[in-house]
Amino acid sequence: xxxxxxxxxxxxxxxxxxxxxxxxxxxxxxxxxxxxxxxxxxxxxxxxxxxxxxxxxxxxxxxxxxxxxxxxxxxxxxxxxxxxxxxxxxxxxxxxxxxxxxxxxxxxxxxxxxxxxxxxxxxxxxxxxxxxxxxxxxxxxxxxxxxxxxxxxxxxxxxxxxxxxxxxxxxxxxxxxxxxxxxxxxxxxxxxxxxxxxxxxxxxxxxxxxxxxxxxxxxxxxxxxxxxxxxxxxxxxxxxxxxxxxxxxxxxxxxxxxxxxxxxxxxxxxxxxxxxxxxxxxxxxxxxxxxxxxxxxxxxxxxxxxxxxxxxxxxxxxxxxxxxxxxxxxxxxxxxxxxxxxxxxxxxxxxxxxxxxxxxxxxxxxxxxxxxxxxxxxxxxxxxxxxxxxxxxxxxxxxxxxxxxxxxxxxxxxxxxxxxxxxxxxxxxxxxxxxxxxxxxxxxxx
Length: 446
What we know:
This protein is of the alpha/beta class.
């Protein structure tokens, strides 16, 4: 696995412009007239007849999304990605199953209001009332975990996106599949980066949201930091609706080398701003979710030097060529094609949340195409066997009893905010080194 991942990083920046097309129905062989005047020739091998068309079917994808509440920004981006996929796959005529059935897709979604208590009620409604054939998770690990219970109970496949917590996949579920890199691998790269940029750094403060996802991330972060010889001088959690972080910021000891943690967009962007206003000096600020979002640039000087992990960035150009070198099949649009069509449709840059929404639906599409069916057991088999490369990166699932459905191949990248010569704040990929578009730097004094 280690060698495989090493190869992947080497090829991340390769370009490519190949779009995998949907398979077409094979033509029926034409009967040929026998010619009596000629000697008999060996009969050609029989060609398989095209499957008899079985008509058309609409497959419904059901999901909830945070169209309101604290997860509104991330939730809307995720919906954008799903809707772009829907427009593209239906625009090509949908899919043809093995029995000749033509399948197009529809979506049915509800606003979960960023509220876990609403999720199970709404997913039950999606299955029983709206007759959803397949499910996509809501954004956030807590909401996805609540939806997973219902999906498994009703024997429905659900692709989770915007949900990185490892713990969901340790509960014995067999129909839940994760698109994101797991939370346990979210911020460990920031420790490696700090060690390279500031070898003498020793003290780390961790301030985090007290939700499932963020807690999973920082527990893994703390363990990794301690294993590398760092001192964790502060380890504090805050409630999800916190808007004043003074009580936590005031606990950061003098001489702290790095401040890490955060949670989701709203709280992390506010924490970032208040750390700047209180002139907290550290060599590194590394936070969850907010840094990769283009909107964080609106914080101006407060965003300078801030680092964050991202599930996907347009500058990381996974390509058909890199897939071929790794012996993996390529599926779906190239990074450039996704980036261009997303911008055209929504008039904004895609974030990893929008890429993750598209990827979740695309993963389901790939499984249906391989299965040649929408039968749950056949699609599940295709997901269990999936091992491919796409614009979103590598996709493969753990199929062990202990971690079934956990993402096993997709990797994180890290971005950092810079100030360009025009005075505009821009983000660049800085880690891993082989995929970087710029070199990382330590934060200047505030």
